[in-house]
Amino acid sequence: DTEVTQTPKHLVMGMTNKKSLKCEQHMGHRAMYWYKQKAKKPPELMFVYSYEKLSINESVPSRFSPECPNSSLLNLHLHALQPEDSALYLCASSLRIPSRGRPTDTQYFGPGTRLTVL
Amino acid sequence: AQRVTQPEKLLSVFKGAPVELKCNYSYSGSPELFWYVQYSRQRLQLLLRHISRESIKGFTADLNKGETSFHLKKPFAQEEDSAMYYCALGWETSGSRLTFGEGTQLTVNP
Fold this sequence. Notes:
The complex is a heterodimer of chains A (about 120) and B (about 110).
Chain A: E1 4-7, E2 10-13, E3 18-25, E4 31-37, E5 44-50, E6 53-57, E7 64-70, E8 73-79, E9 87-94, E10 108-109, E11 113-117
Parallel strand pairs in A: 2-11
Antiparallel strand pairs in A: 1-3, 3-8, 4-5, 4-9, 5-6, 7-8, 9-10, 9-11
Chain B: E1 3-5, E2 10-14, E3 19-21, E4 24-26, E5 31-38, E6 45-49, E7 60-61, E8 72-74, E9 83-91, E10 99-100, E11 104-109
Parallel strand pairs in B: 2-11
Antiparallel strand pairs in B: 1-4, 3-8, 5-6, 5-9, 7-8, 9-10, 9-11
């Protein structure tokens, strides 16, 4: 399996709901990422996990809660979101742990989950 | 701070014409530059990166440190090249962070 998969493809939720986005890869990658992408805009990094540990949190509001149960899975738990959180949420993975002095690895992106918050 | 500038939001060319998508960056150290492409209803995917010096789908890009540019070029555009193109910058202490440009929407007309 050489792809990053994401479920669900689409999600509509109310501001009081709790939902989760899921991401999976079986390429043996040890770094996984969550991005948020608004229409016609570039992806914005939210979180980076390396070896199942959170290594980067780009000052994301606590209503977004990431979880990495194992090296193949990445979840994003959503609670009390706002309508402005509606976006495409992308998961990505890369082979190696992010490290100083080493070339940046290619990131492989999933197809995304289209989230609408009502 | 690191920054990537793609001056053209929209670029339209005719099939068979040369195309150049511009990318300028600001970073004083050793940059790593990437071009990612997002075709309609498809996932974001790497097109090429400067350290591999490959030509992918006829596209090439050369890192010019003097001009701090990494322009993407193709001598003969095809309709299937129509997509959103993002230039992205990584750097030695980025921890795999990528700074993306705002993107250029390329349309190749028949």
